[in-house]
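re the bet — no i am not wrong, look at it urself. input seq straight from the record:
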Amino acid sequence: MNTAVPVLTPTTRALAWCLHLLITGLLALTAARALTTGRPQAVAVAAACALVYAAGPLLPRIRSSRPAASWWLAGVGAVWLALLALSADAVWVAFPLYFLQLHLLARRTAVAAVTLTALAAVTGFAAHAHSFSPAMAIGPALGAAVAVAVVRGYQALYRESEHRRGLIEELTAARADLATAQHTAGVLAERERLAREIHDTLAQGLSSIQLLLRAAERALPHAPDQAARHVHQARQAAVDNLGEARRFVAALAPPALEDTTLAGALERLCATTSARHRLTARFRVTGDAVPLGTAHEVAVLRIAQSALANTVQHARATTVDVTLGYLGDHIALAVTDDGIGFDPACRPLHTPESGGFGLPAMRARAETLAGTLTIESAPGHGTALTARIPLARPAETEPEARP
Protein backbone atom coordinates (compact mmCIF):
# COMPACT_ATOMS: atom_id res chain seq x y z
CA MET A 1 0.00 0.00 0.00
CA ASN A 2 1.29 3.44 -0.89
CA THR A 3 1.44 5.41 2.35
CA ALA A 4 2.56 8.70 0.85
CA VAL A 5 0.36 11.57 1.88
CA PRO A 6 -0.63 13.43 -1.27
CA VAL A 7 -4.14 13.83 0.24
CA LEU A 8 -2.89 15.84 3.20
CA THR A 9 -3.47 19.54 2.86
CA PRO A 10 -0.07 21.24 3.08
CA THR A 11 0.33 23.97 5.65
CA THR A 12 2.63 26.93 5.62
CA ARG A 13 5.71 27.04 7.83
CA ALA A 14 4.18 29.93 9.80
CA LEU A 15 1.05 27.94 10.68
CA ALA A 16 3.09 24.93 11.71
CA TRP A 17 5.31 27.01 14.00
CA CYS A 18 2.27 28.71 15.54
CA LEU A 19 0.85 25.28 16.40
CA HIS A 20 4.18 24.11 17.84
CA LEU A 21 4.47 27.23 19.99
CA LEU A 22 0.88 26.93 21.16
CA ILE A 23 1.29 23.34 22.33
CA THR A 24 4.67 24.07 23.92
CA GLY A 25 3.27 27.11 25.72
CA LEU A 26 0.23 25.26 27.03
CA LEU A 27 2.35 22.34 28.25
CA ALA A 28 4.76 24.76 29.92
CA LEU A 29 1.84 26.54 31.58
CA THR A 30 0.46 23.23 32.83
CA ALA A 31 3.89 22.21 34.18
CA ALA A 32 4.39 25.56 35.87
CA ARG A 33 1.02 25.45 37.63
CA ALA A 34 1.64 21.83 38.63
CA LEU A 35 5.02 22.84 40.05
CA THR A 36 3.50 25.65 42.13
CA THR A 37 0.83 23.32 43.50
CA GLY A 38 3.30 20.60 44.43
CA ARG A 39 2.51 17.98 41.78
CA PRO A 40 5.88 16.85 40.37
CA GLN A 41 4.30 13.87 38.61
CA ALA A 42 2.31 16.27 36.40
CA VAL A 43 5.54 18.14 35.57
CA ALA A 44 7.23 14.91 34.48
CA VAL A 45 4.21 13.85 32.38
CA ALA A 46 4.06 17.31 30.76
CA ALA A 47 7.73 17.00 29.84
CA ALA A 48 7.09 13.50 28.43
CA CYS A 49 4.17 14.84 26.40
CA ALA A 50 6.41 17.57 25.02
CA LEU A 51 9.06 15.01 24.04
CA VAL A 52 6.55 12.73 22.32
CA TYR A 53 5.08 15.70 20.48
CA ALA A 54 8.55 16.91 19.40
CA ALA A 55 9.21 13.55 17.73
CA GLY A 56 6.52 14.28 15.13
CA PRO A 57 8.10 17.29 13.39
CA LEU A 58 11.57 15.71 13.64
CA LEU A 59 10.78 12.30 12.11
CA PRO A 60 10.27 12.37 8.28
CA ARG A 61 8.28 9.12 8.42
CA ILE A 62 5.51 10.79 10.37
CA ARG A 63 5.26 13.61 7.81
CA SER A 64 5.04 11.21 4.84
CA SER A 65 2.98 8.26 6.15
CA ARG A 66 -0.60 8.51 7.39
CA PRO A 67 -0.40 5.30 9.49
CA ALA A 68 2.79 6.55 11.16
CA ALA A 69 1.13 9.89 11.83
CA SER A 70 -1.89 8.10 13.33
CA TRP A 71 0.33 6.11 15.70
CA TRP A 72 2.17 9.26 16.70
CA LEU A 73 -1.12 11.04 17.40
CA ALA A 74 -2.25 8.08 19.48
CA GLY A 75 0.96 8.35 21.54
CA VAL A 76 0.53 12.09 22.05
CA GLY A 77 -3.12 11.54 23.02
CA ALA A 78 -2.24 8.81 25.51
CA VAL A 79 0.36 10.96 27.27
CA TRP A 80 -2.05 13.90 27.23
CA LEU A 81 -4.76 11.76 28.88
CA ALA A 82 -2.27 10.84 31.58
CA LEU A 83 -1.47 14.54 32.08
CA LEU A 84 -5.19 15.37 32.13
CA ALA A 85 -5.68 12.83 34.88
CA LEU A 86 -3.06 14.64 36.97
CA SER A 87 -3.89 18.29 36.14
CA ALA A 88 -7.07 20.06 35.13
CA ASP A 89 -4.95 22.65 33.32
CA ALA A 90 -4.17 20.06 30.65
CA VAL A 91 -7.68 20.55 29.29
CA TRP A 92 -6.42 23.54 27.29
CA VAL A 93 -4.03 21.31 25.33
CA ALA A 94 -7.10 19.73 23.72
CA PHE A 95 -7.54 22.76 21.47
CA PRO A 96 -4.26 22.37 19.48
CA LEU A 97 -4.82 18.60 19.47
CA TYR A 98 -8.03 19.21 17.49
CA PHE A 99 -6.02 20.85 14.70
CA LEU A 100 -3.49 18.01 14.63
CA GLN A 101 -6.20 15.37 14.37
CA LEU A 102 -8.16 17.24 11.69
CA HIS A 103 -5.03 17.75 9.62
CA LEU A 104 -3.39 14.31 9.89
CA LEU A 105 -6.36 11.92 10.00
CA ALA A 106 -8.95 11.04 7.39
CA ARG A 107 -12.12 13.11 7.41
CA ARG A 108 -14.41 10.76 9.34
CA THR A 109 -11.66 9.49 11.61
CA ALA A 110 -10.62 13.07 12.39
CA VAL A 111 -14.15 14.09 13.41
CA ALA A 112 -14.43 11.03 15.66
CA ALA A 113 -11.02 11.76 17.24
CA VAL A 114 -11.97 15.41 17.87
CA THR A 115 -15.24 14.31 19.46
CA LEU A 116 -13.48 11.82 21.76
CA THR A 117 -10.85 14.41 22.68
CA ALA A 118 -13.56 16.96 23.57
CA LEU A 119 -15.39 14.36 25.68
CA ALA A 120 -12.15 13.45 27.44
CA ALA A 121 -11.46 17.12 28.15
CA VAL A 122 -14.94 17.68 29.58
CA THR A 123 -14.76 14.50 31.62
CA GLY A 124 -11.30 15.28 32.99
CA PHE A 125 -12.22 18.81 33.95
CA ALA A 126 -15.44 17.63 35.63
CA ALA A 127 -13.51 14.94 37.51
CA HIS A 128 -11.06 17.50 38.89
CA ALA A 129 -13.94 19.82 39.82
CA HIS A 130 -15.89 16.92 41.40
CA SER A 131 -19.00 18.24 39.69
CA PHE A 132 -20.47 18.76 36.25
CA SER A 133 -22.39 21.62 34.69
CA PRO A 134 -23.22 22.47 31.07
CA ALA A 135 -20.81 25.39 31.24
CA MET A 136 -17.92 22.93 31.58
CA ALA A 137 -18.74 21.46 28.14
CA ILE A 138 -19.05 24.79 26.36
CA GLY A 139 -15.30 25.50 26.18
CA PRO A 140 -14.10 22.16 24.74
CA ALA A 141 -17.16 21.84 22.49
CA LEU A 142 -16.81 25.38 21.15
CA GLY A 143 -13.08 24.87 20.63
CA ALA A 144 -13.77 21.68 18.70
CA ALA A 145 -16.38 23.42 16.52
CA VAL A 146 -14.02 26.31 15.80
CA ALA A 147 -11.20 23.92 14.94
CA VAL A 148 -13.39 21.91 12.56
CA ALA A 149 -14.66 25.07 10.86
CA VAL A 150 -11.18 26.57 10.50
CA VAL A 151 -9.53 23.40 9.18
CA ARG A 152 -12.37 22.55 6.80
CA GLY A 153 -12.41 26.12 5.50
CA TYR A 154 -8.65 26.11 5.02
CA GLN A 155 -8.81 22.79 3.17
CA ALA A 156 -11.61 24.08 0.93
CA LEU A 157 -9.62 27.21 0.12
CA TYR A 158 -6.55 25.10 -0.61
CA ARG A 159 -8.49 22.81 -2.96
CA GLU A 160 -9.94 25.83 -4.75
CA SER A 161 -6.47 27.34 -5.04
CA GLU A 162 -5.06 24.09 -6.42
CA HIS A 163 -7.94 23.88 -8.89
CA ARG A 164 -7.24 27.42 -10.06
CA ARG A 165 -3.54 26.67 -10.29
CA GLY A 166 -4.29 23.62 -12.43
CA LEU A 167 -6.53 25.68 -14.70
CA ILE A 168 -3.84 28.33 -15.05
CA GLU A 169 -1.25 25.67 -15.92
CA GLU A 170 -3.61 24.17 -18.51
CA LEU A 171 -4.29 27.63 -19.95
CA THR A 172 -0.56 28.38 -20.07
CA ALA A 173 0.10 25.06 -21.80
CA ALA A 174 -2.76 25.69 -24.24
CA ARG A 175 -1.39 29.13 -25.03
CA ALA A 176 2.05 27.66 -25.60
CA ASP A 177 0.59 24.99 -27.91
CA LEU A 178 -1.43 27.64 -29.76
CA ALA A 179 1.65 29.83 -30.16
CA THR A 180 3.60 26.85 -31.48
CA ALA A 181 0.80 25.95 -33.90
CA GLN A 182 0.53 29.55 -35.09
CA HIS A 183 4.29 29.73 -35.55
CA THR A 184 4.27 26.47 -37.52
CA ALA A 185 1.36 27.66 -39.66
CA GLY A 186 3.15 30.95 -40.28
CA VAL A 187 6.33 29.16 -41.28
CA LEU A 188 4.43 26.90 -43.68
CA ALA A 189 2.51 29.84 -45.16
CA GLU A 190 5.73 31.80 -45.61
CA ARG A 191 7.39 28.80 -47.24
CA GLU A 192 4.49 28.49 -49.65
CA ARG A 193 4.64 32.21 -50.42
CA LEU A 194 8.39 32.09 -50.97
CA ALA A 195 8.02 29.05 -53.24
CA ARG A 196 5.47 30.90 -55.38
CA GLU A 197 7.54 34.06 -55.56
CA ILE A 198 10.74 32.23 -56.45
CA HIS A 199 8.95 30.19 -59.10
CA ASP A 200 7.25 33.21 -60.66
CA THR A 201 10.32 35.47 -60.63
CA LEU A 202 13.77 33.97 -60.31
CA ALA A 203 13.02 30.52 -61.71
CA GLN A 204 11.17 31.94 -64.73
CA GLY A 205 13.91 34.51 -65.30
CA LEU A 206 16.64 31.88 -65.20
CA SER A 207 14.64 29.72 -67.60
CA SER A 208 14.33 32.67 -69.98
CA ILE A 209 18.09 33.33 -69.76
CA GLN A 210 18.74 29.68 -70.52
CA LEU A 211 16.52 29.77 -73.62
CA LEU A 212 18.19 32.97 -74.87
CA LEU A 213 21.68 31.54 -74.40
CA ARG A 214 20.67 28.37 -76.25
CA ALA A 215 19.41 30.52 -79.11
CA ALA A 216 22.70 32.42 -79.12
CA GLU A 217 24.62 29.13 -79.17
CA ARG A 218 22.63 27.91 -82.17
CA ALA A 219 23.24 31.21 -84.01
CA LEU A 220 27.00 30.88 -83.68
CA PRO A 221 29.13 31.01 -85.74
CA HIS A 222 26.90 31.67 -88.78
CA ALA A 223 24.90 34.64 -87.39
CA PRO A 224 27.08 36.48 -84.88
CA ASP A 225 24.83 39.57 -84.88
CA GLN A 226 21.80 37.49 -83.94
CA ALA A 227 23.81 35.65 -81.30
CA ALA A 228 24.98 38.96 -79.83
CA ARG A 229 21.37 40.15 -79.69
CA HIS A 230 20.36 37.02 -77.81
CA VAL A 231 23.26 37.46 -75.39
CA HIS A 232 22.26 41.11 -74.84
CA GLN A 233 18.69 40.03 -74.11
CA ALA A 234 19.95 37.37 -71.69
CA ARG A 235 22.05 39.99 -69.90
CA GLN A 236 19.02 42.29 -69.69
CA ALA A 237 16.95 39.41 -68.30
CA ALA A 238 19.65 38.80 -65.70
CA VAL A 239 19.58 42.49 -64.73
CA ASP A 240 15.80 42.42 -64.41
CA ASN A 241 15.86 39.29 -62.27
CA LEU A 242 18.59 40.73 -60.10
CA GLY A 243 16.28 43.66 -59.42
CA GLU A 244 13.45 41.22 -58.68
CA ALA A 245 15.67 39.34 -56.24
CA ARG A 246 16.74 42.48 -54.41
CA ARG A 247 13.19 43.73 -54.05
CA PHE A 248 12.03 40.26 -53.19
CA VAL A 249 14.49 40.11 -50.29
CA ALA A 250 13.53 43.62 -49.19
CA ALA A 251 9.82 42.63 -49.31
CA LEU A 252 8.93 45.44 -51.71
CA ALA A 253 6.41 45.49 -54.53
CA PRO A 254 7.47 43.99 -57.89
CA PRO A 255 9.59 46.42 -59.90
CA ALA A 256 7.24 45.90 -62.85
CA LEU A 257 4.55 47.77 -60.88
CA GLU A 258 6.76 50.71 -59.94
CA ASP A 259 5.60 54.01 -61.45
CA THR A 260 3.00 52.30 -63.62
CA THR A 261 -0.40 50.66 -63.54
CA LEU A 262 -1.22 46.99 -63.68
CA ALA A 263 -2.21 47.33 -67.35
CA GLY A 264 1.10 49.06 -68.08
CA ALA A 265 3.04 46.31 -66.33
CA LEU A 266 1.22 43.59 -68.28
CA GLU A 267 1.76 45.42 -71.56
CA ARG A 268 5.47 45.73 -70.78
CA LEU A 269 5.58 42.03 -69.89
CA CYS A 270 4.06 41.08 -73.24
CA ALA A 271 6.47 43.36 -75.10
CA THR A 272 9.47 41.88 -73.29
CA THR A 273 8.27 38.33 -73.99
CA SER A 274 7.84 39.10 -77.69
CA ALA A 275 11.30 40.66 -77.88
CA ARG A 276 13.11 37.81 -76.17
CA HIS A 277 11.38 34.79 -77.67
CA ARG A 278 9.95 33.58 -80.96
CA LEU A 279 6.46 34.39 -79.83
CA THR A 280 4.05 37.26 -80.43
CA ALA A 281 2.44 38.30 -77.17
CA ARG A 282 -0.51 40.70 -77.53
CA PHE A 283 -2.16 42.58 -74.72
CA ARG A 284 -5.51 44.34 -74.37
CA VAL A 285 -7.76 45.72 -71.66
CA THR A 286 -11.55 45.47 -71.43
CA GLY A 287 -13.89 47.34 -69.15
CA ASP A 288 -13.34 50.47 -67.10
CA ALA A 289 -10.20 50.36 -64.98
CA VAL A 290 -10.67 50.72 -61.21
CA PRO A 291 -8.07 51.10 -58.44
CA LEU A 292 -6.82 47.78 -57.12
CA GLY A 293 -5.09 46.83 -53.92
CA THR A 294 -1.44 45.83 -54.01
CA ALA A 295 -2.32 42.19 -53.32
CA HIS A 296 -4.62 42.05 -56.38
CA GLU A 297 -2.10 43.75 -58.67
CA VAL A 298 0.75 41.50 -57.57
CA ALA A 299 -1.36 38.35 -57.87
CA VAL A 300 -2.53 39.20 -61.41
CA LEU A 301 0.99 40.15 -62.53
CA ARG A 302 2.52 36.97 -61.08
CA ILE A 303 -0.16 34.78 -62.69
CA ALA A 304 0.49 36.45 -66.04
CA GLN A 305 4.26 35.99 -65.67
CA SER A 306 3.87 32.32 -64.81
CA ALA A 307 1.34 31.70 -67.61
CA LEU A 308 3.58 33.35 -70.24
CA ALA A 309 6.60 31.42 -68.94
CA ASN A 310 4.66 28.16 -69.34
CA THR A 311 3.67 29.20 -72.87
CA VAL A 312 7.28 29.94 -73.81
CA GLN A 313 8.65 26.73 -72.33
CA HIS A 314 5.99 24.18 -73.17
CA ALA A 315 3.31 25.40 -75.60
CA ARG A 316 5.39 25.80 -78.81
CA ALA A 317 2.99 28.62 -79.64
CA THR A 318 3.45 31.42 -82.14
CA THR A 319 0.97 33.87 -80.60
CA VAL A 320 -0.48 34.42 -77.17
CA ASP A 321 -3.20 36.90 -76.15
CA VAL A 322 -3.27 38.41 -72.67
CA THR A 323 -6.52 40.12 -71.71
CA LEU A 324 -7.13 42.09 -68.53
CA GLY A 325 -10.82 42.57 -67.89
CA TYR A 326 -12.53 44.81 -65.35
CA LEU A 327 -15.90 43.12 -64.96
CA GLY A 328 -17.75 45.07 -62.31
CA ASP A 329 -17.35 43.15 -59.07
CA HIS A 330 -14.31 41.17 -60.15
CA ILE A 331 -11.22 41.30 -62.31
CA ALA A 332 -10.30 38.66 -64.88
CA LEU A 333 -7.02 37.74 -66.56
CA ALA A 334 -7.17 35.54 -69.64
CA VAL A 335 -4.06 34.08 -71.32
CA THR A 336 -4.79 32.23 -74.57
CA ASP A 337 -2.20 30.67 -76.91
CA ASP A 338 -2.25 28.68 -80.15
CA GLY A 339 0.23 26.06 -78.95
CA ILE A 340 0.14 22.29 -78.84
CA GLY A 341 -2.10 22.20 -75.76
CA PHE A 342 -2.24 19.43 -73.18
CA ASP A 343 -4.65 17.32 -71.18
CA PRO A 344 -5.55 19.22 -67.97
CA ALA A 345 -6.53 15.94 -66.32
CA CYS A 346 -2.92 14.74 -66.50
CA ARG A 347 -1.23 16.69 -63.78
CA PRO A 348 2.54 17.04 -64.11
CA LEU A 349 4.81 15.70 -61.42
CA HIS A 350 6.30 18.31 -59.10
CA THR A 351 10.04 17.71 -59.22
CA PRO A 352 13.03 20.07 -59.07
CA GLU A 353 14.13 18.84 -62.50
CA SER A 354 10.84 19.00 -64.41
CA GLY A 355 9.17 21.85 -62.53
CA GLY A 356 5.39 21.47 -62.49
CA PHE A 357 4.87 24.12 -59.83
CA GLY A 358 3.41 26.80 -62.12
CA LEU A 359 -0.26 25.80 -62.24
CA PRO A 360 -0.57 25.04 -58.50
CA ALA A 361 1.17 28.32 -57.68
CA MET A 362 -1.18 30.29 -59.95
CA ARG A 363 -4.22 28.56 -58.49
CA ALA A 364 -3.00 29.22 -54.94
CA ARG A 365 -2.52 32.92 -55.73
CA ALA A 366 -6.07 33.20 -57.03
CA GLU A 367 -7.59 31.25 -54.14
CA THR A 368 -5.72 33.38 -51.61
CA LEU A 369 -7.90 36.30 -52.76
CA ALA A 370 -11.07 34.16 -52.95
CA GLY A 371 -10.66 33.80 -56.71
CA THR A 372 -10.65 30.91 -59.15
CA LEU A 373 -8.36 29.62 -61.89
CA THR A 374 -9.75 27.65 -64.83
CA ILE A 375 -7.83 25.97 -67.65
CA GLU A 376 -9.28 24.88 -70.98
CA SER A 377 -6.97 22.89 -73.21
CA ALA A 378 -6.72 19.83 -75.36
CA PRO A 379 -3.82 18.28 -77.26
CA GLY A 380 -3.35 20.18 -80.53
CA HIS A 381 -5.86 22.94 -79.72
CA GLY A 382 -3.94 25.47 -77.63
CA THR A 383 -4.59 26.54 -74.05
CA ALA A 384 -6.86 29.13 -72.44
CA LEU A 385 -6.16 30.08 -68.84
CA THR A 386 -8.53 32.38 -66.94
CA ALA A 387 -8.11 33.78 -63.45
CA ARG A 388 -11.10 35.50 -61.84
CA ILE A 389 -10.56 37.44 -58.60
CA PRO A 390 -13.28 39.35 -56.70
CA LEU A 391 -12.58 43.03 -56.25
CA ALA A 392 -12.18 44.52 -52.79
CA ARG A 393 -11.40 47.97 -51.55
CA PRO A 394 -7.66 48.46 -51.08
CA ALA A 395 -8.17 49.02 -47.35
CA GLU A 396 -9.66 45.53 -47.05
CA THR A 397 -6.85 43.81 -48.88
CA GLU A 398 -4.20 41.96 -46.95
CA PRO A 399 -0.71 43.13 -47.89
CA GLU A 400 0.34 39.48 -48.03
CA ALA A 401 1.39 39.34 -51.63
CA ARG A 402 4.17 41.87 -51.39
CA PRO A 403 7.14 39.70 -52.28
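see?? DSSP finds eleven helices and five strands in the chain. told u. also The two ends are 66 Å apart (CA to CA). so pay up
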